[in-house]
Design brief:
- By secondary structure, this protein is α+β, with helices and mostly antiparallel strands.
- It has 2 domains: 134 residues, Beta Polymerase, domain 2 (2-Layer Sandwich); 125 residues, Up-down Bundle (Four Helix Bundle (Hemerythrin (Met), subunit A)).
- The chain contains 12 helices and 6 strands.
- It has a 6-stranded mixed beta sheet with strand order 3-4-5-2-1-6, with helices on both faces.
- Strand 4 and strand 5 form a beta hairpin.
């Protein structure tokens, strides 16, 4: 989907700018004796990045300097380029630096003990520096791991869908249309997350739409067409109708996930919950 922009020239150079930034990061960190390993996650590691992809940077440091490096995370990001602004919580182990080049870096700091075998490490770890084999060993230990839906995750998924569905109705009745649209969007997202779980893939964190649309989407044409069709503006009747249109696909996915887990679908119970608002 294209639109007119005055930034075509800048956008055409984003991959080159990202590589320049990445090279500066690597040079800076690799010469630091307190840095034990450097690797990248996300789309860079998976190989499905595009010019707008960011750098998901992972830095493993010695235990004794971890707190110092974590607190200094914003200052360290200035070593790599001209930072325009940050997304940052002082207490968190990461910071997001937005550079003037329109490239952003999500920099996470870890102690060695923080790295645990996981499907994420197996699938999303592009190692740049690992002289002690720390990341390589954890990645090797992760080889046999894969995502598997748990009963608790399933229960949370469907209960949040029901809650957002009921919230759409409440907010429409109150005239709080942006709130209603937010909850409608979370209903859409929940179905998309269900598609991921149906295919034994780890869904995004709640509300995150990254890679669910566009060329990098893991979904088939029918699924992408459904997402595109579930569109609503601020007209209450339209919002209510889209909510109604989402329900059949939710029920289908709900049925499939119940089969995966060997759980009773309880279709009458689901219909009772839906029937409170539709």
């Amino acid at each position: 989907m294209e639109f007119e922009t005055k930034h075509e020239e800048r956008d055409a150079n984003l991959i080159r700018e990202r590589e320049k930034l990445k090279n500066k990061i690597n040079r800076d960190l690799i010469q630091d004796e307190n840095v034990l390993a450097v690797f990248y996650g996300g789309s860079i590691a998976r190989g499905n990045h595009d010019r707008f992809s960011d750098l998901d940077l992972r830095i493993v440091v010695k235990d004794e300097v971890y707190e110092e490096y974590r607190k200094n995370k914003k200052e360290r990001a200035k070593h790599w380029g001209e930072v325009l602004y940050y997304e940052d919580f002082p207490w968190a182990k990461h910071t997001v630096a937005h550079y003037k080049s329109f490239v952003k870096v999500d920099a996470f700091y870890y102690k060695k003990e923080d790295l645990k075998p996981s499907p994420y490490i197996k699938e999303e770890s592009q190692i740049e520096y690992d002289p002690y084999g720390i990341v390589s060993e954890v990645r090797e230990q992760s080889k046999g791991l894969h995502y598997e839906l748990s009963p608790g995750e399933f229960e949370l998924w469907r209960s949040k869908f029901f809650a957002h569905m009921h919230e759409v109705y409440r907010r429409l009745r109150r005239g709080e249309l942006y709130y209603a649209l937010h909850s409608l969007d979370m209903m859409r997202w929940s179905v998309a997350a269900g598609w991921e779980m149906e295919n034994d893939r780890q869904p995004n964190t709640p509300g995150e739409w990254s890679k669910y649309e566009g060329e990098r989407s893991p979904f088939n044409k029918n699924q992408q067409d459904l997402l595109a069709a579930w569109e609503a503006g601020r007209e209450p009747g339209d919002i209510n109708e889209v909510m109604r249109e989402i329900i059949p696909e939710f029920k289908r996915v709900h049925n499939r996930l119940c089969e995966k887990l060997g759980e009773d679908e309880r279709s009458d119970w689901v219909d009772e919950i839906v029937g409170l608002v539709l």
